[in-house]
Amino acid sequence: MSDSKPQDGAGRDPWARHVLVLTALCVVVFAIGPTTQGVASWHEGQRLLVARQMLDAGEWVVPRVHGRAYLAKPPLVYWCQMALASLRGDRVWLVDTRLTMAIWAWLGVLGTYVGGRELLRGAGGARAAFWGAAFLGTGLEYARLARLGQIDMLLAAPMAVGAWAMARGLRRRADGRPAWGSVLLGGGAAAVAGLAKGPPALAMFVVVGLGSGVVLALADQRGSGGLWARVLGWSGSAVGAAVGGLISVSHAREAGWTLVAAVGVLMQAALGGGLGCVVGSVMTPRRLGVVARTVWRTGVVAMLALGVVPVLWWGAAVRARLGDQTVAAWAANEAGENLVLFWATTPVQNLGTLVYGAGLGSLAAVGGLAMWIRGRVGARRAERSGRAAAVDPEGGLDPSFGVLLAWAIGGVLMFSVVGRGSSRYLLPVLPAIALIGGLVVARAGWWGRAGVRRAVAIGVGVLAVALSAWFGAARSLLEGDRSPRDFMRALLAPGTGVSPDRLGVYDMLEPSLDYYADHPVRPIGGAPSHLTGQEPMPLWRLRRELRQRGGSFTILARVEREGGSSPAGRFEEVGLRVERLEIGAAWTYAGTPVGAFMVTADTDGQEPDGQAGARGGPADSESDA
After folding, report:
1. Which end of the chain has fewer CB atoms at under 10 Å, N or C?
2. Which residues contact 142 (CB under 8 A, 6 or more apart)?
3. Stretch 380-392: mean pLDDT
4. Mean pLDDT in the chain?
């Protein structure tokens, strides 16, 4: 194999021009008007609140919310926000969160370009990598997550670097050369991913490394295994389909049958069958040998060993401060929420994300998959009719491209089979999808036409401008009520009589309220204390406190739509007098309008039973795999 750099049609390496264009594209999509839209995501509000309180307290090891440990995720995202705020000499504000995500989104695009040059070295080179990176930067889901402070954005860059390191290690070791530099760089990428999201991020490295071996083993014609491999493959397929189908049926019954759940059950059975077929098909001596050699050559084992060290160090520091019991309780809670197999609706949600997540790259990848399937079917038909050329006994797949396929297919399988499903979970897979789309576009027969190249470039440009306009201005104008920013400003304005220290929230879990009030907003009802950092206060206890202290208390609650029960009625049931406040701004929570209710204690009558009015909202949980 050659170490020559990928080049464009003119024979010169265009990397500098490509990097400049991609950087300009990222500035347009990610950096214009970063704070025009207020906090509109629970996860963004929680990361923002924790980072602010960590920096205020001078705490850089144990994430905390209102003084209580919050160990749902490792601290890298908080460190980034705190570092930007420290550079500005200020507290953590929304701009620090949004700039953190914009920077990581930019690094993810550049990482995709650099990784793509290695992964597509023999199949498209720099041009395919450039278009893949451009497609990713203008991907609808990628841009949305970059603008909303989602922690998953920190995974795109390390995954791209890790895939680059594995592909380079495969190539160099196949040539008999050392690959310690690649291993060290991949280990650093694994450390970043681990400090960003913990075990789920490190599991992606396992999937890519092991999946590369499986892909290359299945592509090795000499290791087909004949009848025995086919028997194992079909047997594994039957077992996997049965397991996936039965488990997903039980989940569908638990959550309630819907059309999406029914379709998801069929998809989970198909995914289980496909996974079982793959596992069974590689159970031949030669294919297992290919898997073992490939895993060794990628260096993924050494990368994981290096990458887990910082995570273990942070965990040890947290245990030294909090004790083993607290850490174990958090670990058990996270595992219980996220380690769910064959959840019925997950593959349906993931399918939708794959169609639009990487923008034009998703469309090109889907089109390329359809053309590949058509070509494979045609080749099989020709082979059966005796018209096919002899199969090359040395045939196989380019190792670098095998890493890319393992990244894309393995990642989709992992996040479809494990977890309850969320569009953001697939973010570390989107660079691979975008690169496949870039390859399809760069190698298409019609690409030589100037008009086609110009149309693709215009499409990318239009998407960039549209995304910038939407997230930088239009969304705030059209969907401003999705954030409580304006609502809280109006509520706490002078003259309203509302004080932040006498403010609560009922039947909701929204940390951005604490951020905008710059004061703990008391949860009323059944909000889980491990997420809010505060013990929830039942309504009957609030009434007792108001009877003792006097004065009023303001509760934010969802206003039921026509035909539903009123929160004011629930407050009155426990002996509270209620006055609905008129707020000059609107806020909707989960699609339901929110109102502000000023309550005082009804001093007449007997103290109600302690359990009366203790009804609260569901015990929300983060479920943030």
Report:
1. N
2. 105, 108, 136, 156, 357, 358, 359, 427, 430
3. 46
4. 86
Q: Are 419 and 350 in contact (CB under 8 A)?
A: no
- The DSSP code for 519 is S
**Count of other CB atoms within 10 angstroms of residue 352:** 12
Contacts of residue 348, Cβ cutoff 8 Å, sequence gap at least 6:
260, 263, 264, 267, 421
Q: How far is CA 102 from the centre of its chain?
A: 15
Structure tokens, 253: 């019954």
**Of the candidates 203, 11, 16, the residue with the CA atom closest to the CA atom of residue 110:** 16
Rounded Cα distance, 588 and 561, in Å: 12
Integer Cα distance of 29 and 464 in angstroms: 5
22 phi/psi in degrees, rounded to 5:
-65, -40
- Six-digit token pair at 143? 């841009």
Kindly state the average pLDDT of the residues 424-443. Answer: 92
Alpha carbon distance 251, 346 (integer Å): 11
Decide: 480 and 39 in contact? Cβ < 8 Å: no
In this predicted model, which residue has the larger pLDDT, 372 or 263?
Answer: 263
Q: What is the pLDDT of residues 322-345, one digit of tens each?
A: 999 988 888 888 877 778 889 999
How many CB atoms lie under 10 A from the CB of residue 292? 12
DSSP 8-state secondary structure symbol assigned to residue 501: G
Is 612 in contact with 573 (CB distance < 8 Å)? yes
Dig out the tokens for 614 from the structure.
């203790």
